[in-house]
């Protein structure tokens, strides 16, 4: 059962998938339509799931489920992952990009983990740089802690050593 993302409760579980490039508006529309169709038929052990999908910044696909209605099972979570893998294969995209996404010069940039120290040294990544925390577990944390300062994240260790 498809629920508009804005109507999902704060406790709803979320999964954030990061594309390996910015999506065009037509790609966003296509992905949104395909995933809405999938979510409308999403079930766990035959029980309909109340789910939602929204694409943010033409880069991040956020899937959510209200587990107070019915809990997502391992198989239903695997199904949602499969949707993104299949879409990625069809569209030559990777929705499982594990690089660090951050805002630099008002644009979303990404960097491999091994390049973070260099970006800090170059002042491209600073304590005030906004990064995307794609590991938020629910809508409330998505709203409040998805986009945070690097110094308030796991990246703070890079700035502590730079100031000592």
Number of strands: 9
CATH architecture of the largest domain: 2-Layer Sandwich
Helix share of residues? Answer: 25-40%
Q: How far apart are the termini?
A: 53 Å
CA-atom Rg in angstroms: 17 Å
Q: How many structural domains in the coordinates?
A: 2
Give the secondary structure arrangement, pairings included.
Elements: E1 13-18, H1 25-40, E2 43-44, E3 47-48, E4 51-56, E5 60-65, H2 74-91, E6 100-104, E7 107-111, H3 116-121, E8 130-132, H4 139-145, E9 147-149, H5 156-163
Antiparallel strand pairs: 1-5, 2-3, 4-5, 6-7, 8-9
What can you see in these coordinates?
By secondary structure, this protein is an alpha+beta fold. It folds into two domains: 5-91, Gyrase A, domain 2, CATH 3.30.1360; 100-163, no CATH class. It has five helices and nine strands; from the N terminus they run βαββββαββαβαβα. The strands form four sheets. A three-stranded antiparallel sheet has the order 1-5-4, covered by helices on one side. A two-stranded antiparallel ribbon has the order 2-3. It has a two-stranded antiparallel ribbon with strand order 6-7. Helix 1 packs antiparallel against helix 2 (74-91).
Structure summarized in a few sentences:
The protein has 164 residues and is of the alpha+beta class. 34% of the residues lie in helices and 23% in strands.
Question: Can you tag this structure with a few keywords?
Answer:
three-stranded antiparallel beta sheet; Gyrase A, domain 2; 164 residues; two-stranded antiparallel ribbon; 2 domains; 9 strands; 5 helices; 34% helix; alpha+beta
